[in-house]
Amino acid sequence: MIQTAKIYENLLSISKDSGDDFLDLSKNFPVMLRELDSISNRNSAAMMSLRMFSSIQTQLKDVIEAQQQLLTENRQFLAEVREKNNSLFTHFSEKMHLLDTIQDIISGIRESSQEMEVISLNAMVVSIKSGKAGQAFSYITSNLKHMSLRLISQSEQLIENGKEVQDALQILKDEISKVNNLNQNSSAESYDSSASMINAIEEISAKLSNMLESSKQLKTPVVKAMEGIQMQDIIRQSLDDVLIAVQKLTAPGENLTPEEKLYTYNANEKLSTLCIRCLTKIKEKLDGCVEVFSKNREEAAAILNEIDRTKGSFVNNDNESISSLVTLKMNIESAIDDFNGFSEIFGLYQTVQGKVMEAVQNIQEVVQIMSLCFNGFLPIIGNLQYVAIAQRIEVARNDAISSIKDTVEYMSQLITNTKENVDTAQKQLKEFTDTSQIQIQSFLETNSRNKTTLSDVTESKRSFAENLNSLYNGLREAIRNFRIYSPDFYTSYEKIAEKIESLKKLSGRLDKEIQDIQAFADENAAHKQKHMSLYDLADDGVHNADMEEFLQHFTITDDKLEAGSIAGISVTGGAESGEITFF
C-alpha cells in the first residue's frame, strides 16, 4: 500500500510553511498600516518633501513675478524714452520754420549783396566818366563792391549750413524711427513663457497633492487584506488535526487476525475520508485567504502604480508625452530667451540712441556755425554803413556825380535792410538754440540714465538665468526625491506579494496530498474488499469508543463534527471555526 509517512511529512511541511507565510504577512501588514496612518503627519517624509517643493515653488514664482515686474518697468522706461525722442524730434521739426525763415533771410541778403555789387559797378562807371572829379567817389564805391562780395560769400556759406541742418534733421528722423521700432518690438514681447512656466509649476503642485491624496486611499485595501489573516490559526490547527489522523493511517500488520485486519481497513477508510474532507475545507479556507489578499493587493497595486505613473510623468520623457518637468524646463529656457531678447533690444536701443544724440549734436553745431556767420555780417554791414554815408556826402558836394544820388540812396536802403535781416536772423537763431538746449539737456540726462538701466538689465539677466536654473534644479531634485512611502513600506509590500504567491503554491500542494490520500483510500478499499471475500467476513465498522478516544486529540470543532458525521457518533468541544489570532 501507499506509504503514508511521506504524506505526513509533506503535510507537516505545508503546516510549517503556511505558519511562516502567515507570520510574515502578520508582520508586514502592520508595517504598511503604520506608515499609511502617518502619511498626513507633519513630520512624515511625504509632508516634508511637499513642504520643500512648496518652498521652491514659491521662490520660483517670486523670481518670475519679480522679473516680469522688472520687464514691465523697463518697457515703461523705454516708452517714456520714446516719448522724449518724439518730443525732441517734434521740437526740431516745429523749429524748422525758424531755419526756413532764416534761409529766406539769407537768400534776401545774398540778393541785396548782388544788387549792391551791380550798383557799385554802375557807380564806378559814372565816377570814371567824371574824370578827376569822380576819383574820390570811385574809391569809396570800390570798397562798397569789395564788401558786397564778402556778404555774398558769407550768405552762400550760410545756405550750405542750412542744407546741412536739413540733412542732420533727416538723420535724426531716421534714427528716432529706429528707436520707435525697437520700442514697438519690446512692447510686442509676450508673457506666454512666464505664464506657461507658472502653469507648469501649478500643474506639478496639483499632481503632487493628488499623489498624496491617492496614497491615503491605500489604507482601505490594506485593512481589508489583513482580514485574510484571521484564518491562520484555524488552518494551522486543522492541519494539526489532519496530521493526527494521517499518523493513524497504516497497512494491517501480518501478525493480526483477519478480523483485526478488517478493523484496520475500516479505520483507514474512515480516517482517509476524514483527512480528505478536512484538507478540502482547509484548502477552501486557504484559497479564500489568498483571494482576499490578492483582490486587495491588486487594488493597492493599482493605486501605487498610479502614484508611480504620476511621479514618472514629472521625470520621464518619451515620444508620446512630455513630462511636466521637461515642460517647465522648456518654459524656463523660453523665459530666459525672452529676457535675453529684451536685453538685446535694449542694447540695440542704446546704440541707436547714441546715433540720435550724434544727429542732435550735429544740428546744434551747424546752428552755432550759422550764428557765428551771422556775427561775421555785422562788421561788414558796419563798414557798408560808413561807405554809404561817405557816398551821400560825396554826392552832395560833387556836382559831377549828382546824377547817381538816387542810386546811392537806394544802396543805403539795401544796407539798412540787410542789417535788419541779420538782426532778425540772429534773434531766431538764438530762440532756436535756447529752446533746443533745454530739449538736448533733458535728452542727455535720459541717455545717462539709460546707461545705468542697461547695466542693471545686464546684471538682472545674469542673475535671472542663474536663479531660474538653480531653482529648477532644486525643484527637479525635490520631485525626484519626493516619496510618500519609505523603503520599508515597499519592502513589506513586495514581501506580502511573495507570501501571497507562496500561499497559492501551498494550495496546489494541498491538492497533491488530497490526491495521494484518495489514492491510499482507493487502495485500502480494494484490499478490504479482497480481504473480506477471502475470509468471508462481514463489515462491522469501527468501535465508537476507539473513535471517541481518537477525537479527543482534535482541537477544531468543525473537524470533530466532520469526524463524528463520518463515524456516526455525537461530539462536542474544540475551538470555534471563526476564532482568529493576530500576531
Describe it for me?
- The chain is mostly helical and 583 residues long.
- The chain folds into 2 domains: 4-44 and 205-322 and 494-567, no CATH class; 51-202 and 324-480.
- Helices cover 86% and strands 0% of the residues.
- Helix 1 (4-38) packs antiparallel against helix 5 (219-226), helix 2 (45-129) packs antiparallel against helix 3 and helix 5 runs antiparallel to helix 7.
- The longest helix has 85 residues, at 45-129.
- The radius of gyration is 58 Å and the shape is rod-shaped.
What is the topological layout?
Elements: H1 4-38, H2 45-129, H3 135-188, H4 192-216, H5 219-226, H6 232-248, H7 258-315, H8 324-397, H9 405-480, H10 487-535, H11 544-551, H12 557-567
Helix pairs in contact: 1-5, 1-6, 1-10, 2-3, 2-4, 2-9, 3-8, 4-7, 4-8, 5-7, 6-7, 7-10, 7-12, 8-9, 11-12
Short note summarizing the structure:
With 583 residues, this protein is mainly α.
Beta-strand residue percentage: under 5%
Radius of gyration: 58 Å
Global outline: rod-shaped
What's the domain count? 2
How many helix segments?
Answer: 12
**Overall pLDDT score:** 79
- The helix content, as a percent range, equals over 70%
Low-pLDDT windows of residues: 317-322, 574-583
Number of strands: 0
The H-and-E topology, N to C, reads as: HHHHHHHHHHHH
Distance between the termini: 41 Å
**Main beta-sheet strand count, sense and barrel state:** none
Secondary-structure-based class equals mainly alpha
